Amino acid sequence: MKIDRVKNPLTETDPSREELEKALNFAEAVADEGRQQVFTLRSQEAFGGDVYVAVQSHTRELAEQYGMSFKVCAEGRQRLLKPEIAEQVCAIIREALNNACRHSGSDVVLVELCYGRASFVARIVDRGCGIAPEILAAGGKRGHWGMAGMRERAQQIGGTLSVSACKSGGTEVCLNTPASVAYPLLLRAA
């Protein structure tokens, strides 16, 4: 953004620089939220709870935008999630993918969707520079709400979220949602 060009000549201790950084962070957050809302609307309308199709669509867009490669795979019997759960799952995956694109420096990102009997698990793994231990310990970067937002969304749907540094480099985001919450009940014929 053009704000960066104005900010760079300022010294680290200049109060104007801090104000510009706050404004830039806020503008990025607003833009991200707008993109997220559009993605959520598209996901609900076009994909109707099919997280796999929604993720495929989003990774195609990101591949064009960032020039990265994405591998999306599904394990287990692929099925629709409850619409309200799919919405939150897609938002979490989208945030994890956007973070990987912006911060990891990775050339490829893996998305695994595991449709298990006990739970639905989404794993997003990049082969990038990894996440700083102090950011992990703090639960996110100061002034940024991506990791906190992902955790809040996971809690809202009765799931758990873990973010960890991979031993070989890179970052793994793992969302685990109980099957009883994730999948619609199927009515059995008498």
From TrEMBL:
<keyword id="KW-0418">Kinase</keyword>
<dbReference type="GO" id="GO:0016301">
    <property type="term" value="F:kinase activity"/>
</dbReference>
<dbReference type="InterPro" id="IPR036890">
    <property type="entry name" value="HATPase_C_sf"/>
</dbReference>
<dbReference type="Pfam" id="PF02518">
    <property type="entry name" value="HATPase_c"/>
</dbReference>
<dbReference type="InterPro" id="IPR050482">
    <property type="entry name" value="Sensor_HK_TwoCompSys"/>
</dbReference>
<protein>
    <recommendedName>
        <fullName>Histidine kinase/HSP90-like ATPase domain-containing protein</fullName>
    </recommendedName>
</protein>
<keyword id="KW-0808">Transferase</keyword>
<dbReference type="InterPro" id="IPR003594">
    <property type="entry name" value="HATPase_dom"/>
</dbReference>
<feature type="domain" description="Histidine kinase/HSP90-like ATPase">
    <location>
        <begin position="84"/>
        <end position="181"/>
    </location>
</feature>
<dbReference type="GO" id="GO:0000160">
    <property type="term" value="P:phosphorelay signal transduction system"/>
</dbReference>
